Amino acid sequence: LAKYPWVSLVGPLKVIESVLRGIAQVMFVNNPLSGLIMLLGLLIGNLSAGVGAVAASLVAILVAKVLNFPDEVISAGLTNFSPVLVGTVIPALYPVFFHAPLSVPVWLYLLATSAFSVVVFAGLGNLLGLHKIPAYTLPFNVATSITFLCMRAAGYALPAPEAATASNDTSLLQGDEEEVEWDRVLMGTLLSVGQVWAVESVPCSVLILVGAFLCSPILTLACFLGGAIGTFTSLVVSSAPYSAVYSGVWGYNGFLAGGAIAFFMIPTGRNLFLASVNAVFATFIMAALLPVFVANQLPVFTFPFCLGSVLMLAATIAAAPENLVASPSTPE
Amino acid sequence: LAKYPWVSLVGPLKVIESVLRGIAQVMFVNNPLSGLIMLLGLLIGNLSAGVGAVAASLVAILVAKVLNFPDEVISAGLTNFSPVLVGTVIPALYPVFFHAPLSVPVWLYLLATSAFSVVVFAGLGNLLGLHKIPAYTLPFNVATSITFLCMRAAGYALPAPEAATASNDTSLLQGDEEEVEWDRVLMGTLLSVGQVWAVESVPCSVLILVGAFLCSPILTLACFLGGAIGTFTSLVVSSAPYSAVYSGVWGYNGFLAGGAIAFFMIPTGRNLFLASVNAVFATFIMAALLPVFVANQLPVFTFPFCLGSVLMLAATIAAAPENLVASPSTPE
Amino acid sequence: LAKYPWVSLVGPLKVIESVLRGIAQVMFVNNPLSGLIMLLGLLIGNLSAGVGAVAASLVAILVAKVLNFPDEVISAGLTNFSPVLVGTVIPALYPVFFHAPLSVPVWLYLLATSAFSVVVFAGLGNLLGLHKIPAYTLPFNVATSITFLCMRAAGYALPAPEAATASNDTSLLQGDEEEVEWDRVLMGTLLSVGQVWAVESVPCSVLILVGAFLCSPILTLACFLGGAIGTFTSLVVSSAPYSAVYSGVWGYNGFLAGGAIAFFMIPTGRNLFLASVNAVFATFIMAALLPVFVANQLPVFTFPFCLGSVLMLAATIAAAPENLVASPSTPE
Fold this sequence. Notes:
3 copies of one chain form a homotrimer. Chain A is built from 15 helices and no strands.
């Protein structure tokens, strides 16, 4: 299906296919049908995030054309997956971090961020390409971090409402005695799927898993396993209260970390083990980066996944280059 | 003129030419006459900065000789342009950030910083050279950041005078109602030229523009356009009061960002567009880095320009390598 | 001795030799006897650190085997020297930074950190290898920083005891008038040897020097010179009270920086000069990084040495590639 002859189709269809593939590429799936199901999930989970993903993708395709990207890279959605995340994460996290509703300037920032992320994708791709290592979603992370800091500098952030702070304090006080609620940890594992796109919604997570499973069961299992490992590891490297664990925030880096190894390496038992280690690694890095990012009032985005996976892939390439798949599509 | 036969001249003249070319190289101009006019501008705008530029250059030439740099690199001023910035920025910004007058130990730090910046230039040049990407003024940024942090650690900083803090508070209170004064924004665009060397002075800016224009009108226009774009973009990504905008502080990264693309790429309409995008990009990055640097009581120097331009050049090379000029001298 | 035929020995002996070589490799010495003497020093100076070094090395050898590292890299101890530092630094610094005694979870973190540092070693080795530059102890720095931040996030840190804070305040007040006690500066130079492993102990430092001297007198002298330069330079870039100088904390980056150049370059007068410059450079970087790391409640580890030496080695390779030793073993 990945080789479906779509070049012959007319322009708008090509654009739609590129947009859909870009949505699925976030979790390494190169398939428009999977992308369509995932987009449905996003729209159900958070309407703004779904719209943002499409808008950001359209800008990205335009910029990619201006930058003369090869046609097959654009149509495979490779130039769009970072913009897709820009388009979902800004609408989803802006209200949380800036205590303000979405406004027109924020949408303009979103489109500019999408454009910048394509430039960063091209730049980092060139730099890391020499080492045969992908930049993963680093372009999204870099561009969105810059934008969040810009919007804060431009005075977009409203003061945090009193109530939220107060309830936080209370839960912190209760923290030390809190028991881990294992059913909510399991729910957190499921929610971590949608949290990759910063959407916390069970139907969204389920639709994303279904979409991915249609295209590549092994990859989906590796991702899900990574998300579970990340969620459970986070109980060790964070402290109570575990509300962030229950909402899936601690699992999405592990989810991507598991997929990243499964996608670029031949699926053997040893590489599955490495994927698990990578998920633990990403969760450790997340725990480490969190306080540094909080000090700058930034979310950690998917930086932990990117940094861990770049190192892990570089490590495994160095040790055993024959393990790398020649042309990564799906493990099957 | 760039190919002027100067190798046959005697030692001191060679050194003078290298110093002058190094001053002009800050804005990509390889011409001793331009450098002389710019040095005049610097001396008029800020005497200490002008003297510092020359002193730092002399140390840099010495270090470059010890490190066995090729003769043509030294004489083109390529080893000196980071030291030139070290020499102008430390005398210009030290009194502002440390609330203390220049002293002998500060000058010794300046000379050591100049020497280190040459080492960093050689090191980064080697690392980035593999990717065919210049390090721009990163050596200056790295070396001067280290020195500023060192001087603070060594207890050089005096407490900020009360008056300055008070007046800042007042202007912050008035901030929300402040109107943008467009004539002062235009003046800020002009002042941003001198701010590249951290000198805020109209005659200095004019002399620098004249010097650069003599050698390369296209490059000068690209830089000036970048400075204007940066200054106007900053109105979007910063909040009132706009005193920093009016003094040119927000434009110098755009100024360099515009020039960086114009210098390394063939001057077509498309590349002029990319130069403009790069100037916007640099200004976004500046807004993002500012709060992080302020937390460490550091100026952002030209980090925004360097980071943005490295990525942008890497992006454009990846997309269209034929656009890169084979041997960058001047666009003409 | 470096070429001692050990491949024929049985498994456990191979492991022991790899562990011992790994300990000595921290200061570029590839010799099991030196490693044994150094291990003795570590055990005398800080029993937990010595045990930690061995435990971390054993985990590292296992991980290196899983990652399919070539046999000669493992047996030379190259995969172990970062883990050795993980094993000595965590037991030595954990009680200081977390105000809590070592516990079983901390030891488990130690073993996990050791495993991660091997992955980082492989990853960075692959990335920097293209530039023919070693990653030095960066893997140790990255892995241990992450772990310290993780342990803090997981609530391991107890509040600092009042007494310590109070006595600090007192010494800070006396600071401005404090005279430099030169005999204690000299003692700090000696203590800086052990501080490479985060062990502050005269017998430990002496045993380490003896062990290294047996294998390579020139390298040992270059290291010791670097440590002395670092310790004396720190008097310029830090402010009173100088208790950290006296305890050797300011010298260990210079110690390693001196050795790093002596080890990878042909031992000429010019390169000895560069080694000295590198030691000054590392100390400047340390002064610069210290406040940034303190803000995140982290020690600077050996980041200053790594960053300085990567740049300095890249600089010298660029300038004069013939200076690099083809196959670095010992200068003799």
